[in-house]
Specification:
With about 110 residues, the protein is mainly beta. Helices cover about 0% and strands about 50% of the residues. It contains no helices and 8 strands. The strands form 2 sheets. A 4-stranded mixed β-sheet has the order 1-2-7-6, with no helix packed on it. A 4-stranded antiparallel β-sheet has the order 3-4-5-8, with no helix packed on it. The radius of gyration is 17 Å and the shape is extended. The mean pLDDT is about 80.
Length: about 110
């Protein structure tokens, strides 16, 4: 399962992980590193929804048994902890197409 790190609420101390069932395809000349893949929304009941293009995925939030650290290496070869990941967003179901009704139809 592919896993992607994401920043939550524009803060350094709260990050999450997105886990997708399957893969995200892109043209061979394009890299996904640092690319905008989709929009993550959390509804009032706490259910995450990921919108990628014209598809929507519904998932769930799971607390990790063991937190993960996000670290970077400095110029003097020391490791600095940027964040701790405590939860992940799992999307196991197949994406559903987003279909809009024609406004002229009743």
């Amino acid at each position: 399962m592919p896993q992607v790190l994401l920043k939550i609420q524009d803060s350094l101390d709260k990050w999450g992980m997105v886990e997708l069932q399957g893969k995200v395809d892109c043209p061979p000349a394009v890299t996904l590193q640092g690319a905008h893949i989709g929009d993550l929304h959390i509804d009032k009941s706490g259910t995450p929804q990921l919108v990628i293009g014209h598809h929507i995925l519904t998932g769930k939030i799971v607390k990790l048994e063991k937190p993960l650290g996000v670290m970077t290496k400095t110029d003097d070869k020391k490791w600095v902890i940027k964040s701790v990941i405590e939860e992940k967003y799992i999307f196991k179901t197949r994406p559903k197409p987003i279909v809009q009704k024609n406004p002229t139809e009743k």
